[in-house]
Amino acid sequence: MQTFNNEYTAVVKNEGDWWIGWIEEIPGVNCQERTHRELMESLHVTLIEALEFNRRDVLSASDKMNSINEPEGKKNNRSTPRSLPKKSRCGVFVGGGLWEDE
Q: Quick one: what percent of the chain has pLDDT higher than 90?
């Protein structure tokens, strides 16, 4: 398997008491925080989670197609994305719905 190092563009705006931002290349990765630093951290975590959700969907579809050839008892050791702090106001649009960290 080959991995790629990607760069993403964070669009960031100061709106009154809030910093808002989104990742230009990944629709649905949007955050709102009180400080620029918190916003950048939340965007980073939310981007990682969105990419992981997409990765899981692809691997799940692939696993279903390849399950006939996979030996029984083989364990799937995929990583779980870390959660955002409770105070974060971020969301990732997944499958037409909004996922929010609670």
A: 45
Amino acid sitting at position 6: N
Report if residue 63 sits inside a domain.
yes
Sorting pLDDT into bands at 50, 70 and 90, what band is 58? confident
Q: What is the CA radius of gyration of the chain?
A: 16
What does the pLDDT average to over 57-72?
71
Is 48 contained in some domain? yes
3-state secondary structure of 26: coil
Domain holding 22, by residue range, is: 10-68+83-100
Concatenated DSSP letters for 30-84? EEEESSHHHHHHHHHHHHHHHHHHHHHHHHHHHHHHHTTTSPTT-------PPPP
Q: Does the residue 76 lie in any domain?
A: no
Is the residue at 77 inside a domain? no
